[in-house]
Write a structure and sequence with these properties.
2 copies of one chain form a homodimer. The first copy, chain A, has about 400 residues and is of the alpha/beta class. The first copy, chain A, folds into 2 domains: about 25-40 and about 290-395, Aspartate Aminotransferase, domain 1 (Alpha-Beta Complex), CATH 3.90.1150.10; about 40-285, Aspartate Aminotransferase, domain 2, CATH 3.40.640. The model of chain A has no long low-confidence stretch (mean pLDDT about 95). Chain A has helices at about 40-55, 75-85, 100-115, 130-135, 155-165, 190-200, 225-230, 255-265, 275-315, 340-350, 380-395, and strands at about 30, 95-100, 120-125, 140-145, 145, 150, 175, 205-210, 235-240, 250-255, 330, 350, 355, 370-375. A 7-stranded mixed beta sheet of chain A has the order 2-10-9-8-7-3-4, with helices on both faces. In chain A, α1 (about 40-55) runs antiparallel to α9 (about 275-315) and α5 (about 155-165) packs parallel to α6. Chain A has 11 helices and 14 strands. In chain A, α6 links the parallel β7 (about 175) and β8. Chains A and B meet through α1, α3, α4, α8 and α9 of A and α1, α3, α4, α8 and α9 of B.
Chain lengths: ~400, ~400
């Protein structure tokens, strides 16, 4: 087009840069919440799709399957039982709102509670998608440091007291208490009780993101904060992305109707995708509990491969705590490694990793950290990708100083 | 809970009222873009789901099926061919962005172009979902009156000139040119050319919403504005909600990469539901063209039933133009009928209709109008629902003055 129309003068201010054209995933992809394709329960999902469509498929002609905007009732019924068994949560189907992935759940929670200039409390190292949303919303974020048992309650108490002295009431405490992203920690029950006590004392609700809670190696978890709350001050969200399949985009919110009804009122999308909810409900009711151990065994094996490869190729240059579950490892590299500078160099070698500063509100302490996702790559890809990553690190930053014999294909 | 946590003091300002609990659809539902359940191509959708899942289902373990954020490539390939055949649009797969229904498409267009205080031009009688979004965004809306051939170009010219005199450049002209919602008009090709001429003269892009364009009784339509534009100033959106099934939530945007890449950059949802895109692509490539006439015959028959019922029960009290396609009829009732006051009375009788003022930016001229959607109710429901509606109108407003013999079950 010779005289192409110029949209640039019409753009709203403050937009992010234009997207780049997609050029395929890298050969060694250690980013993204992708799952293990071999652990996907494909045959049973196919059977579920067939059965539910034959029985109820004509309902697809009606928005929300005629069942209202909270989502497919059998999936909410499954969740009522699952959340009671696994997380100790007692809730009714009308306290659940199904969403287009847990990202929409986060957007709805933020949509009813946050305005520019508000203050929220989060874990210092935290899910990038949540941090970026808070940044875009112009919210003041207070990061609470973590240790091996998750968010530190002494630091939380200090932060809440500091805010109280300034007359500020935080809009929420956002936490991923059960397999924290990115640290992989699990907040013990006594800390949960303390968090609830502090939150109630300061009149601050808790926003509990339990997306990874199904993926614990020994399947033992503390009760959800939602389950332990006596005042109903916890908004709980979860997802089927990590336990079944991320491309399905089905998440959920569990909250008292008083606040859930406000979120429902700003869900302007005419409903989330119904077919995916139908297939999940049909699959999960009979099979979810059998599937989870199959998946976690596969994930655990990949984590072992990743930790072995790091040991072999990085030696003591890669420090980490073995997580009790999940799909990622939070790795500390030597101080001379600038993870943000490493990113493009690794990408040029066909490897992607998450630079620590993108997963933390403390850019200094996370400068030499990387998040490595291990669910999607094969065992061979993990081994070869980590070997290559060590080469790149050595070339760019001089560490690891000595790389063990590297086998390459 | 005796001491329930009170979220109210923490809510953001300006929120809509809390949602009501869903209590089921009314017996006679003449609202919503629902489709005809009997015309849903269920067997072939089931076959498509089975085939595509067996072939590519493991890709569901990866966000966006490993194919990038613009959506499932085979569905974009289908659209390239379909849009060329039906609408004259020449575009590449990377000029298409698949969305979670066309509502997300509207949100993305608005997201990159609009800020509070901006001005947009729309059709005076217009899709409620678009009007409501513009209201929430705090945008000044100029409504252009329509006649039997859609938006009036003399009025558009005057509006653009009036804005130019005030030094205002509208951010876009939003139009549903092909089976307009709610009037059912189709903008002829000469008016499309004139709209493009005016838009280009004033440097204003056109936002073309073609959601109903497949549902034309004789399947003859003018080329899309996108197809006729020489400068590339048209953003075109469409949907599978009206042609296949609304609960699937699959829409799309077709636009030059320069502006599409800005929309993609604010699509923060980690991708739209992939299973629905996969099933649609597998189904549409071989079957879409055969399905559309089956669907439109069914819709046309329901429209005939609706118009007959209105003639029988309302006589000359219900004025309307028979639309050339679509799923709704825009009906003028006598001036004494206040459609907003009719709504709750009809609802109490088990009938829902769309009050005109909710589908228009001119509340006076739309005061006695209602939109009646006819795709979802059965023929019997249409007949009985209109009979009941006439009774309610007679009781509340004295019109129709005389109701023909009403048969009821």
């Amino acid at each position: 087009m010779s005289s192409a129309f110029d949209f640039a003068p019409l753009l709203a201010s403050g937009l992010p840069a234009a997207a780049e054209r997609f050029s395929g995933l890298p050969a060694y992809n250690f980013t993204g919440g992708h799952n293990d394709p071999d652990a996907l329960p494909l045959d049973r999902l196919i059977d579920a799709a067939d059965a539910v469509l034959r029985r109820e498929g004509r309902n697809l002609a009606t928005y929300n399957l005629s069942g209202g905007p909270q989502g497919y009732l059998p999936l909410r019924q499954f969740l009522v039982g699952k959340l009671a068994r696994d997380a100790g949560i007692s809730c009714a189907t009308d306290e659940i709102l199904l969403t287009s992935g847990s990202l929409q759940a986060i957007d709805l929670v933020n949509g009813v509670l946050l305005a520019r200039g508000d203050t929220v409390i989060i874990e210092q190292d935290c899910y990038q998608g949540s941090i970026n949303r808070l940044t875009r919303l112009g919210v003041d974020v207070i990061g609470i440091p973590l240790d091996r048992d998750g968010m530190r309650m002494d630091a939380l108490a200090s932060a809440l007291e500091g805010l109280a002295r300034r007359g500020i009431r935080a809009k929420y405490i956002y936490t991923i208490p059960t397999v924290q992203n990115p640290t992989g920690t699990i907040l013990p029950e006594d800390r949960r009780a303390e968090m609830l006590r502090l939150a109630e004392a300061h009149g601050v609700p808790i926003f509990e993101d339990d997306c990874y809670a199904d993926l614990i190696w020994d399947h033992r978890r503390p009760p959800a904060l939602h389950a332990m709350s006596r005042s109903g001050n916890v908004i709980h969200i979860g997802s089927f992305s990590k336990s079944v399949a991320p491309a399905l985009r089905v998440g959920y919110i569990v909250a008292p109707w008083a606040i859930l009804s406000r979120m429902l009122a700003i869900k302007f999308d005419a409903g989330s995708g119904a077919l995916e909810q139908m297939v999940l409900a049909e699959y999960c009711a009979p099979h979810f509990d059998d599937h989870v151990p199959v998946l976690t065994r596969a994930l655990r094996a990949k984590l072992d491969t990743l930790m072995e490869a790091l040991g072999e190729h990085f030696g003591t240059a890669a420090e980490f705590e073995a997580p009790k579950g999940g799909i990622f490892l939070w790795v500390k590299l030597p101080d001379q490694v600038d993870a943000l500078a490493l990113y493009p160099k690794a990408l040029a070698a066909g490897i992607t990793v998450n630079p620590g500063p993108e997963w933390s509100v403390d850019k200094a302490s996370s400068r030499s950290r990387i998040r490595l996702c291990f669910a999607s790559p094969s065992h061979d890809e993990i081994r070869n990708g980590i070997a290559r990553l060590a080469e790149v690190c050595h070339r760019e930053f001089g560490v690891p100083a000595r790389i063990a014999n590297i086998t390459r294909e």
